[in-house]
Amino acid sequence: MNFEMTQEQIMLKEGVRKIAQKYGLEYWREKDAQHEFVNELWSELGKNGYIGVAISEEYGGAGLGLIEMAMVIEELAKSGAGSTVGQLFMLTPVFGGVTIELHGNKAQKQEFLPKIASGEMNFCMALTEPNAGSNSLEITTFAKKEGDHYIINGQKIWISGVNIADKMLLVARTAKKEDVQKKTDGISLFLVDVDDPAITAQPIEKVGTHTVRSDAVFIENLKVHKDDLIGEEGKGWRYLVDTLNAERIVTTAGLVGTGELALKLAVDYSKERVVFNNTPIGAYQGIQFPLAELSAEINVAQLMNYKAAWLYDQSLPNGAEANTAKLIAGKAAFQVCDRAMQVMGGYGYAKEYHVERLWRDVRLFKMAPVSEEMILNFIAQHNLGMPRSY
Ligand SMILES: Cc1cc2nc3c(=O)[nH]c(=O)nc-3n(C[C@H](O)[C@H](O)[C@H](O)COP(=O)(O)OP(=O)(O)OC[C@H]3O[C@@H](n4cnc5c(N)ncnc54)[C@H](O)[C@@H]3O)c2cc1C
Asked: Same domain, yes or no, for 113 and 222?
């Protein structure tokens, strides 16, 4: 076991930090208020090779892995972005990049990976439906084969980044649940054009993560060529598991960076703020202990996430680690933001002090992309060997 960072990783972190510092807290506050995607930052990250960090060199990427992607995300999150930046890396580098790199065919890799790496092309993923969230195998969006094409109909919900995406990774059934032996069979992945008139999207008003819009999506008689299928028809769930584990790793990286950022804001404030006896509030254990405890939890989550990412990059099973890291990071990052707000008293509630945005955004990750309860179900069942409870 070697916990030392490579020279390449140290340089990668330094490089991305320089860009991240140009797009700090004020930039994100403004983008959040305007409900605008961070185009300037995203295009600079693309030009400098950070979006394609895990894409192979053959297709224009840096040829590194998810562990380096996690480091890039942490730097961005702690420089001001907060947890939303994990979502940005979910959308294009993971839903597009990781899925196509692992399971796409040669033509799909040649067409899409270089444009993903450069930041020219954005992706989103449509899995969740009004009646299929945690129970994602219950999706009913259906792709009916007709000659060389599929005709797809269905409804999706909470689809993030549709408004900025060129392509959608669309998850649909090609065989009904009742007609297959295992519920995981009969699911297929398609790469579809978001601007096809058969797809319409309606924004959902939400609590936070305003730089990444989320929509209800309606799909009516969408015609997709069979060449736009990823891998084999009906085997999509197996491919999707890889995408979803990578999604947990990037989410956790965003949460770790957010924890570090909120801790810093709280600590800095507590060292300045004097309330009684000419003593800064940071001198009180009542202020210190919760922050110290959460700092320990964030560090543990980071370590577990690096392990998950390392396993992922070696093509080894990583589901238990990726889920565990996400569980710990989601809880700890939310608690840090909440404590940071408490430490700042009334000022924590003011937009000017930034913590309120971090707090609003981070709440999402207790229930998405996978909820705390579903991770506990996973750990009980897969790690502890207990019976499935549902
Ligand atoms: C802002 C936002 C962005 C999103 N972006 C995307 C996206 O880009 N693409 C996409 O496909 N989806 C996206 N999602 C969907 C997200 O993945 C789902 O919301 C999530 O999987 C939970 O599903 P649900 O909302 O239907 O909750 P439900 O599945 O209805 O669960 C409701 C509650 O019941 C609990 N619960 C359910 N079953 C059990 C059980 N067996 N044991 C214990 N507790 C249980 C859950 O943990 C949860 O607390 C997004 C969601 C949000 C809010």
From this structure: no
> How far, in Å, from the CA of 347 to the mean position of ligand 1?
32
- pTM for the structure as a whole: 0.97
Distance 304 CA to ligand 1 centre (A): 23
- In this structure, the answer to whether residues 35 and 85 fall within a common structural domain is yes
C-alpha to C-alpha distance for 3 and 303, rounded to whole angstroms: 9
Query: Per-residue confidence of the chain (390 residues) as pLDDT tens digits?
Result: 889 999 999 999 999 999 999 999 999 999 999 999 999 999 999 999 999 999 999 999 999 999 999 999 999 999 999 999 999 999 999 999 999 999 999 999 999 999 999 999 999 999 999 999 999 999 999 999 999 999 999 999 999 999 999 999 999 999 999 999 999 999 999 999 999 999 999 999 999 999 999 999 999 999 999 999 999 999 999 999 999 999 999 999 999 999 999 999 999 999 999 999 999 999 999 999 999 999 999 999 999 999 999 999 999 999 999 999 999 999 999 999 999 999 999 999 999 999 999 999 999 999 999 999 999 999 999 999 999 999
The total of structural domains in the chain comes to: 3
17 and 106 in a single domain? The answer is yes
Q: Are residues 136 and 223 in the same domain?
A: yes
DSSP string, 40-92: HHHHHHHHTTSTTTTS-GGGTS----HHHHHHHHHHHIIIII-THHHHHHIII
In ligand 1, the atom with minimum distance to the C-alpha of 369 is 17
Mutate to test the pocket of ligand 1, among 128, 171, 194 (most ligand atoms within 8 A of CB): 128
| CA 100–ligand 1 middle distance (angstroms) | 25
